Amino acid sequence: MKKVIISIVTVLILTIGVYVSLDVNKKNNSFATPKEALNNMEEPNFEILEVIDTKFSEDKNVSYVFFYSEVDKPKNYLTAAIITKNKYGWKFAEMVGVGDIAVGNAGNSTGHDGYRIGFAASEVAKVQLGIHNADIIPLEDKKMKAWLLHGLSSDEFEKNELQFLNEEGKRLKSY
Q1: What is the C-alpha R_g of the chain?
Q2: Residue 77 · residue 60 · CB < 8 Å
Q3: Other C-beta atoms lying within 10 Å of the C-beta of residue 55
Q4: What per-residue confidence (pLDDT) applies to 45?
Q5: What is the pTM of this model?
Q6: If you ran DSSP here, which 8-state letter would residue 33 be given?
Q7: How far apart are CA 153 and CA 38, in angstroms?
Q8: Nearest-5° angle of CA 131, CA 132, CA 133?
């Protein structure tokens, strides 16, 4: 009977130790702001040249930090970092290379798991997908804009057509 009690206590102590260790790790990798979480990333996939903008999901638990990176020349590539909120602060989740900032990429997009990020021409004032309106991210000194749709269900992007609208609300050609 003593061996059984000792075994149960040992397993219980080990389980508590693992839980505390994981919780401490989560706390140590969390930061006060999404930008701080981005700047404290270990070995980022893309060099962070300049943060452009930060957008938040409706429930404020996910942020998208947009920044310029470099592929061939400085500030020619748009990247987004997805940062999630936990009970200790903000933690890096993933980094997405949106693409080269070039007029020929207008209409191109990337994304999964409830979000989509893409490019639009400078004359686009609004991007819609079904009932969703995209957040617009102006790109300085570029003839492009970026857009972000978040909170999408898994099949909304396939079932609906992206609409690009100008300032007057007139539909522009689909890219």
Answers
A1: 21
A2: no
A3: 20
A4: 82
A5: 0.81
A6: S
A7: 26
A8: 125
The more confidently predicted of residues 142 and 68 is 68
Token pair 């099949």 is at which residue?
A: 155
Interval 107-149: pLDDT, tens: 999 998 789 999 999 999 999 999 999 999 999 877 899 999 9
* Amino acid in position 127: V
Which residue is it, tokens 């999901």? 57
CA nearest 150: which of 107, 100, 112?
A: 112
Check whether 99 has a pLDDT greater than 80: yes
Locus of tokens 């990176």? 69
Per the model's pLDDT, the better-predicted residue between 63 and 173 turns out to be: 63
Residues comprising the chain, all counted: 175
Pick the closest to residue 128 from 160, 104, 86 (CA basis): 160
